[in-house]
Design brief:
With 178 residues, this protein is α+β, with helices and mostly antiparallel strands. Helices cover 26% and strands 25% of the residues. Strands 1-6-7-5-4-3-2 form a seven-stranded mixed beta sheet, covered by helices on one side. A hairpin with a 2-residue loop joins strand 2 and strand 3. Helix 2 packs antiparallel against helix 3. The longest helix is centred in the middle third of the chain and has 24 residues. The radius of gyration is 16 Å and the shape is globular.
Length: 178
């Protein structure tokens, strides 16, 4: 399902004066510009990565996500379900960042939020397009599978646009392994 919403589901707006350890936009208030920042708030872990001035952003995003999964205990995987969940997260990150590269002049930022039940991936870019799975989906044809993969692997996904700035944030949520 693709939804354009003013705020992500469950988002009650910014915490007053950075109370959650994040800035008004939800980005970690320290460390995000140096390649990654991490904060914890009420059992929720948040990491952010700025792509400004970076090349090779897809492998960079995967490595950053893999490090977060290690820090949060998803990796090394204890079993097949946990391994599959971690691989799904890495694949969805790859697809979202690749789409920003192909269709939106590259990604600006990756933000990962994890609690005990859901991991949320957000890729911000300056693009104006609306991502959507190609329909009809033709499995035998090359290309055009990215958002179909995201749709199939995720609990939910969508797009958030800010009326104050150009661009969008494409988000996707996956369930944590049991």
């Amino acid at each position: 399902m693709s939804i354009t919403r003013p705020n992500p589901p469950g988002d009650r707006g910014p915490e007053p004066s950075g109370a959650s350890g994040t800035s008004e936009g939800g980005v970690p208030s320290s460390g995000a510009s140096d390649g990654g920042g991490a904060v914890s708030s009420g059992g929720r872990q948040v990491r952010g990565l700025s792509f400004e001035g970076q090349s090779g952003v897809v492998p960079l995003a995967r490595d950053f996500t893999r490090q977060a999964l290690h820090a949060w205990g998803w990796l090394p995987a204890a079993g097949a379900d946990q391994r599959a969940a971690a691989e799904d997260v890495l694949l969805v990150v790859s697809e979202l960042v690749t789409n920003a590269c192909l269709h939106a002049e590259g990604p600006d930022e990756l933000r990962i939020t994890c609690d005990n039940k859901v991991i949320r991936l957000e890729v911000s870019d300056k693009g104006t397009g609306q991502p959507s799975p190609r329909t009809p989906h033709r499995a035998g044809r090359p290309g055009g599978h990215g958002m179909f993969i995201v749709q199939r692997l995720c609990l939910d996904w969508g797009v958030v646009r800010s009326p104050e700035a150009a661009g969008k944030t494409v988000w996707a949520e996956l369930g944590a392994p049991a």
